[in-house]
Structures are given as structure tokens and as C-alpha cells.
Amino acid sequence: MASAAAAAILPITETAATRMTAGAAGKIVRWTKNSLARNKQAMIDPSNFSRVLAPPVLDLARDVSLRLQDQRSQVEKLQDYVTKSLEGGSLGSVSQENIDPNVGTPTAEKNKKVIATSSQPYWWNQLQKEEKTMMTSEERQKRRQALEKARQNLHNLNKLHENTQEIAETFWAHLETNKMENPVLDKREQKWLKATFRQIRDRHALTVEDLAEFAITTRPYWDPALPLDDTVMDFLRGRMGVQLLCEHALSPKGMIYKDCHLLSVLEDATNEAQLLCESHYSHLVTAAPEVVIVTQTIDRSDEFTIVQPWIHYVLVELLKNAMAVSMERMTKEMEASSCSNVLPPTIFIAIDDHHDEEDKSYLSIDVLDQGGGFKNPDLAQNTDILFDFVRTKKTMWDRLDDQQTYAETRSPMQGLGVGLCLSRLMMQHFGGTVELASHPPLSLRKKQSLIGDSSVVDSLEAGCIASIKLLKDLDHKEPLYASDDDE
């Protein structure tokens, strides 16, 4: 409400609107961890901590607006695809009297030559070329319903970005117009600042879920020749950048945690993952797998500059996966031995400091389970598919279904299928990544145990290793995913 009231009092002037139009054609800011930290530090007047300075706030507001504009363009690309898919292929003109009850396709179209054009969707060209790939009338109806729903959802998502961008631009325009001579925000403007970034953050809380629904329901009809996966990933990168900047503006200390004890972050993530695991597998009446943290080069007192909430999220996601396969292995051993006192295998977190071929300094955090590794050899050779957005999900989680079964939330160990995808994107924002691989039986005897019983570190059975790679160079050249930055 504060933002709406401020917007009514301080409308966008013609000069400010011209500036915004010119600025919208510019580049999205290349934020690094250091530049974000400096931005937060510059917001507060060192002579008076209650005074907030406008220039660094203006930089954030302008960049958030540009990122929202970029996200909106990604949504419009998806809208264009769905619209063409619905309008192409004469799908809307098929009537029931022309449907062959035996085949379920228009009898008049069976022998008709179709000239392939760029305006015809991929599925329709394939439908005409091969008899065996023809859709039944039920399949066509299902496809049309999915695309119609997707079109409406994307329309709503587009409007959300349009309205949210107006919120950011109104605040941005006010700062550019009124704060050049007196760059200190008064109390009303400080409230407006918080209301603006809070509204943007909260309005986009469910955009990942909305996009997941679009991908799950329409992916079977995607044209493989179109870069729809790339468009979805560009949208997600933009969304995460916006959320990070909003949280950075709202947090008293910002989102960049300097001199952070990594071990405390690992402990918190481990405790949360274990609680989720015990909640999900409560019927087995057993504790979650033990987690042992080992290292060879990192000391307990070592401090790092990280985006702590993101590191915590990624660790919880990777530990949840490791604990799930560990509990599955334990369940199989219990059934095979008819013994109820079998414990889940231990999970290890190995931390190391190393350099790559370009002499960049990295911190690696490896989560190693003993669940047996990938059963599918093709998947073991190409684990990148697991990082695709909701690639492995076939159905959308339904709140109504969960309410009817008296579940307060969806399963804590299962979700939309976005955890690994978002985890990799979070780490890539500042030059890192997340990788998955199988590991054979191996030994960690040379590692020093930081948490847990060092006597169990002798050897590990086969399993998977999920590796987090963090770039330690705070001013690396990788941008905070400015998708329009070609440099």
C-alpha cells in the first residue's frame, strides 16, 4: 500500500519517462560479490547510520527494472510460441463430422499434400508425414486444453511483470528527478524504498511454480527445433537476479556475507536436511543418515565471502537427494535381511581448496552418498538432463489433492523438480556451478574429520557425488547473468 500511495503522490514525469526509455536500452549491470557489497555499504551515510543515500538505491532500482523488462521479453517469446501452436495446423477448424472414428484424424486430410512452411508447427508437419504419429481426437483435445491453459498462464505472468516493472520505474523515476541535488532519502522515501522492493519480491514468489506448470503441461508438444529450454532458463536467471537484488536492498546487511564461517552454514543445512528426512521417513522409525564433514585444506576458522542463503539452499537440496537414496538403500537391506535395526549409510561432505587450468581459485564442496550410484548407464554419462527445468516431472503438484489427503504441504523430500536446476543457476550467478557424477568405492582416509566420527572415514561404497564449485575471486568477469550482455 505504501508503494501505491507513493506512486500516486509522485507520478512519473515526462522527463523521467524519457530517461527511463533511454535507460531501458542500456546494459544490465555486471554485479560481482564485491560490487554488491560496496553498493550496500554506500547506501548508508557513515556519518549518520539513519541516513540512506539515493545513488546506490537508484542503481538497484534501475537494474531491477531492466531485468524485469528482460524477463517480460522471455515470457512474450513463450506466448508467441503457444499462440502459433494453437493457430497453426488448422487445429481450430477440425469439426466432429470430419473425424474418422477408427483413426481419430480428419479423413479429408489423410491424402492431402501439406506444403511445409515456417508458420506451421513442428507437430503438424510430423503428423502429416508419418501415419503412425497421428494424434487421436482425444489427444488433440488434450493438447489444445494444455496450450489454452498455458496461454492464459503466460498472459497473467506477462501482466505481472508489466505491473511490477511499473512499480520499479516509478521509484526509479522519482530518484532520478528529485534526488540529484539532495541525495538523501527522507523517511517517507525510505518507506517507499522498502515497499517497492518488498512488493517486487513478493509478487514474484510463485513465478517459478507458474513456469513449472507451463513446462510440465506443454513440454510434450515443444518443437525441438526451437530454443524453448533456453528461453525458460533465461527467464529463471532473470528472476533469480531480481530476487537477489530485492533481498539485497531489504536486508540490513545485504545478501553478501563477508567473513562467513562456512562450517556453520554446513551445520545449519545438515540439520535442516536431516529434519526433513526424518519427517518424510517417519514410518521407518529411524534417524536420518549421519553426515560427516571432512577436509584436507580448510580449517574450522576459515572465513569466506558468500551469498549465504543461496549456499544454504543448494546444500539442503543436495543433502536431501543424498539422504533419499541412502534411505532407499537402507529399506532394501531391511527387506532383504528381514532385520529392523539396519542404519542408513553415512553421507560425507568433503571440502577442498584448489585452482583450475586458468589459475582461478575455487572452493569445492562435495556431497558423497553411498546409495549405489546411477542405475541407468546413459544417465551416468550425461547427468546434465537432471539439471533441466522440470524435465523429469510428468505431473504438476496439486494443492487441492494434498488438502484432500490432509497433508499440510507437499512432501518435504519431493517437489516440482526444480531443486537441482535452481541450485546450478544460483552457483553460476557468481562464476560457480553444481555437477553430478557417480563415484566408485573410494577412501577418504587422508581427510581430516571436522564433524562426526573420524573412524567411519576409511572407505565409501559406490554412490553419487554432487559437487558445488565456488569461485573465490570476488571480482571475476562473469556477469550476474545479464542475458543481453554480449561482451
What does this structure look like?
This protein is of the alpha+beta class and 487 residues long. It has two domains: 2-85 and 138-250, Up-down Bundle (Butyryl-CoA Dehydrogenase, subunit A, domain 3), CATH 1.20.140; 257-471, Heat Shock Protein 90 (2-Layer Sandwich), CATH 3.30.565.10. 48% of the residues lie in helices and 13% in strands. It is built from 14 helices and eleven strands. The strands form three sheets. The chain has a six-stranded mixed sheet with strand order 9-11-8-7-5-10. A three-stranded antiparallel sheet has the order 1-2-3. The protein has a two-stranded antiparallel ribbon with strand order 4-6. Helix 10 (262-280) crosses helix 11. Residues 1-25, 89-133, 396-410, 449-456 and 476-487 have low confidence and may be disordered.
Provide a short characterization of the protein structure.
Residues 140-167 form a coiled coil. With 487 residues, this protein is of the alpha+beta class. It has 14 helices and 11 strands.
* Total domain count: 2
Beta content: 5-15%
- Name the CATH superfamily assignment of the largest domain: Histidine kinase-like ATPase, C-terminal domain
CATH architecture of the largest domain: 2-Layer Sandwich
Query: Can you tell me the CATH class of the largest domain?
Result: Alpha Beta
* Unreliably modeled segments: 1-25, 89-133, 396-410, 449-456, 476-487
Q: Quickly count the helices.
A: 14
Span between N and C termini? 40 Å
Portion in helices: 40-55%
Strand tally: 11
Oligomeric state, counting identical vs distinct chains: single chain
Which fold name corresponds to the CATH topology of the largest domain? Heat Shock Protein 90
SSE ordering: HHHEEHHHEHHHEHEEHEEHHHEEE
Q: How would a crystallographer describe the biggest sheet? A: 6 strands, mixed
The pLDDT mean sits at: 75
